[in-house]
Design a protein that fits this description.
The chain has nine helices and five strands; from the N terminus they run ββαααβααβαβααα. The protein is α/β, with parallel strands linked by helices. The protein is globular and about 45 Å long.
């Protein structure tokens, strides 16, 4: 069976926000026939050999030195994020990110409508690709009920061969990739608006590293 997996992660929430703020949704696409087991084994071995005992490379906490990464040095955390980048670039995937400026969608109803419109446009603009699959499985952790509802409505309205599954990021490396790409897409916006945080500047301390190494790399995998 010709099957497409879609892994989804978000940044932001549907509540009140302090401007400037954005709500992002990232989609990572993977053809199930393209095996990535070797890439996963290589990544997990590399993580273990580096002294990390983790199932989830959560990009934001890595950068901000939060949660399980609080006792790890800047150099160790930077090496970990490079492992995530190398894994992402080695996988046969593509991605697409929707970004809604919250100044144009300050309430839940407006935000839901804008997201639904953008998701529908994404599907319409890539009909040939989506319609070529026998089955499309959408993986999301159901972290936000509002987004779950939007995803179900938008995909179901456009595609008859779609199935939704609740997914644990610790079990799906490509769901972690969606988190990675979503975080970088937000950093791209913040960089262009000259409002990177202190911890973000400290992490990407090398000149133009964020743009040239990370942003330009993932841009190569953008859904055409």
């Amino acid at each position: 069976m010709n099957e497409l997996s879609v892994f989804i992660d978000e940044s932001g929430d549907f509540g009140e926000c302090q401007l400037p703020s954005y709500y992002l949704v990232t989609f990572v696409f993977h053809k199930q026939n393209d095996d990535i087991s070797d890439q996963v084994k290589k990544l997990e071995k590399s993580i273990k050999n580096s002294g990390f005992n983790i199932d989830y490379i959560h990009t934001g906490p890595v950068i901000r030195r939060e949660k399980v990464f609080i006792n790890h040095s800047l150099d160790d955390r930077r090496k970990l994020l490079y492992k995530r980048l190398n894994f992402t670039m080695s996988c046969p995937i593509s991605h697409y990110t929707i970004a809604v400026n919250r100044k144009d969608a300050e309430d839940k109803v407006t935000l839901s409508g804008k997201l639904a419109k953008e998701i529908s446009a994404m599907i319409d603009n890539h009909q040939g690709q989506f319609f070529s699959y026998d089955k499309i499985i959408v993986y999301y952790d159901n972290g936000q009920n509002e987004l779950s509802a939007v995803l179900n409505a938008a995909f179901s309205a456009k595609l008859s061969n779609v199935e939704f599954r609740k997914a644990n990021p610790k079990k799906y490396r490509l769901l972690q990739v969606a988190d990675f790409v979503c975080t970088l897409e937000l950093l791209k916006i913040k960089r262009s608006e000259k409002r990177l945080s202190k911890s973000e500047k400290q992490f990407f301390y090398k000149s133009k590293e964020l743009k040239k190494t990370f942003l330009k790399s993932i841009d190569k995998l953008r859904l055409k």
